[in-house]
C-alpha cells in the first residue's frame, strides 16, 4: 500500500459487467476503490468484489443528495482526495503517473479538471468538442449543488451535466481519461434522450444559468455566451465540426458533431413542450378561478 496513490476512487455502476473489469484495472495504482452499485442484475458486483473493490449498495430515495454527493457524505473513505471514474471510462497510465507525481510534490489544489478522449464509432476522436470534468477533489472542499431537477422526467439518480462547487483553487491536469461513450449507438442515443429531458427542465427553470459550480475560466465564459444564443443546435455543430476541426476525424467526427447538434435540437423542442404544458396549466387554473368567482356572485 505504500506504493499506491493516496486517493479513493469512486466508480458508480448499474449493470456494467461489460465495462467494470477494464475500468477497475485502470485504477489499480490507487489505494482504495469503491464500486457504488444501484441494484445491478448482472455480474457487475461479483466481478468488482473479486477484483478487490469495496462494493457498496446504493438505493436512491428520490430526493437530494443524488449519488455523487451521497458518496461524499457517506462512504468510509481512508483518504482525503477522491477520484470519480464512470464504469465506461478508463484512467490512462499517463494520468495515473501525473496524479502520483502531483501528490508526491505535496502542494495540492482542492480540485482538478481532466480532459477526456472520446471513443465514438470505434474511433478515438482527436478533434472536435473536448470534454473536461472536475473528477479529482478534496472531499472536504467540494460539494455537488442541488439543482431544481427532481421533476425531470426519465432522469435518474446521478447528478446531470454539471460540476461540483470547490472551495478554493482548482487546476487542470495534462493527462486524460478515455471515455467509451456507449455499448452501441442505441445506448448512446437512449442516454442522450434522457439527458436532453433533464437539460430541457433545468434550462426552462433557470437552473442551468446557476454558474456556482466550479469551471475552467474559459468554460464559464463560453457557458454564459452559449446560454444566451438562439439555435444552439446549429452553433454546437459548427463548433465541433468546423471551429474545433472535427472534420479531421473523418466520418466519425462528422457523425459525432451531428449527434451533438441533434442533442441540442432535442432540448430546444422539449423546452417548447414544457412551455406549452405550463401555459396550458396556467390557463386551466385561471379558468377554474374565474368559474369559482362567477359561482360566488
UniProtKB/TrEMBL annotation:
Protein species of origin: Paenibacillus xylanilyticus
Transmembrane segments: none
Highest taxon in the source lineage: Bacteria
Ranges where the Glycosyltransferase 2-like domain occurs: 8-105
Pfam entry (one): Glycos_transf_2
UniProt-listed CDD domains: Beta4Glucosyltransferase (cd02511)
Keywords of this entry: Transferase
Protein name in UniProt: Glycosyltransferase family 2 protein
Annotated InterPro entries: Glyco_trans_2-like (IPR001173), Nucleotide-diphossugar_trans (IPR029044)
UniProt keyword Lipid biosynthesis, yes or no: no
Coiled coil feature spans: none
A GO molecular function held by the record: transferase activity
